[in-house]
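Hypothesis: this fold can be encoded by more than one sequence.
Test: take the structure tokens below, design a sequence, compare later.
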């Protein structure tokens, strides 16, 4: 009996690129708001400015980054094959700073279309981002793996179950918000500073 051809279908899209100039410009803005008690909420038990009312995204010095994310949302969805001609978006941005011992458990971003992150300051021993296989059965069925077949590619950070991003300053990631991800326990002494964003639709052309 011959083996059949195995095809991999239904890809999960994650865009990754380097936006170092943008990160360098945004870092002092992030530090300003992270040092202002009026903007700190410390949601999820670590230092951040998350606010459901989205006040931060309306600040004048945030406009260039908000516009950048809005344009990225259009290009990401267009490159995934979606018609973005009638789409318009709301953008939510918040900053976070993680220190030794901080983490963010496995989660998604509900009621959003796209989510992502821009790494602004990444000291040594900063925690990676882990992205999980979105297929539901992965939560319930665990297969024993052959020792020589752990990875599905030459990239040691990719397996059948997880994808690890070990970022540097300027790393930009964007994905669809239903994708589960996690920040493992951070071990850096200095602050691991990120700009996190969510994108949601504002018209009937975008349905949840």
């Amino acid at each position: 009996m011959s083996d059949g051809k195995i095809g991999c279908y239904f890809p999960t899209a994650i865009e990754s690129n380097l936006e170092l100039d943008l990160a360098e410009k945004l870092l002092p803005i992030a530090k300003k708001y992270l040092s202002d008690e009026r903007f700190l909420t410390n949601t999820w038990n670590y230092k951040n400015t998350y606010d459901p009312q989205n006040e931060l995204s309306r600040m004048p010095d945030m406009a260039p980054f908000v516009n950048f994310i809005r344009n990225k949302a259009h290009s990401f969805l267009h490159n995934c094959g979606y018609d973005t001609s009638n789409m318009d978006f709301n953008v939510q941005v918040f900053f976070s700073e993680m220190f030794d011992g901080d983490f963010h458990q496995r989660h998604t971003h509900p009621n959003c279309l796209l989510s992502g992150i821009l790494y602004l300051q990444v000291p040594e021993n900063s925690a990676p981002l882990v992205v999980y296989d979105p297929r539901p059965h992965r939560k319930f069925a665990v297969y024993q793996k052959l020792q020589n077949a752990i990875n599905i590619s030459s990239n040691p950070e990719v397996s059948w179950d997880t994808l690890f991003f070990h970022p540097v300053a300027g790393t930009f990631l964007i994905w669809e918000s239903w994708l589960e991800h996690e920040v493992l326990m951070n071990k850096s002494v200095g602050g691991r500073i990120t700009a996190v964003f969510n994108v949601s639709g504002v018209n009937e052309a975008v349905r949840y």
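The helical segments are 20-34, 63-79. DSSP finds two helices and ten strands in the chain.
Hypothesis status: open.
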